[in-house]
């Protein structure tokens, strides 16, 4: 278990948490499975502790009582369009669904935000008119197109 942090985000799954965690750790550097707890050796995992991009997470296969919701999402800041595309494509594959403005839901129902650094930098700019142009173009997108955000920011 990753003991560097006293806290971790716990995601409630109906089932399939181990499969999801094993997939998630392939997406980002500094990711790994930390531990898997099974009530019996031949049973599915009940709890999977893992690190995703350096942040500690836990999946609890708790059954159908609680559903995933967009109220909790995993937000990933990407360095460029290629990383944005790679993560977006991987997470929407096999039943995932695109959302608006950098949001998506993966095949397990977990919400993600795949946010290019260029969008964050544009929105946080002191040039409020340029930031608003970047914001307005972002509102027209599902997956963020870095070139379009940058062009809007520049006024093009």
Could you explain how this protein is built, in words?
The N and C termini lie far apart (49 Å). The chain folds into 2 domains: 1-64, 2,3-Dihydroxybiphenyl 1,2-Dioxygenase, domain 1, CATH 3.10.180.10; 68-156, 2,3-Dihydroxybiphenyl 1,2-Dioxygenase, domain 1 (Roll), CATH 3.10.180.10. It has helices at residues 17-24, 81-92, 117-123, 128-138, 146-154, and strands at 9-13, 32-37, 47-52, 55-61, 73-78, 97-98, 103-105, 111-116. The protein is an alpha/beta fold and 156 residues long. It is 30% helix and 26% strand. The chain has a 4-stranded mixed β-sheet, covered by helices on one side. Strand 7 (103-105) and strand 8 (111-116) form a beta hairpin.
Euclidean distance between termini CA atoms:
49 Å
Which class of the largest domain in CATH terms?
Alpha Beta
Question: What is the residue-averaged pLDDT?
Answer: 96
Count, helices = 5
The H/E string reads EHEEEEHEEEHHH
Under the CATH scheme, the architecture of the largest domain is: Roll
CA radius of gyration is 18 Å
Per CATH, the superfamily of the largest domain is 2,3-Dihydroxybiphenyl 1,2-Dioxygenase, domain 1
The total of beta strands comes to 8
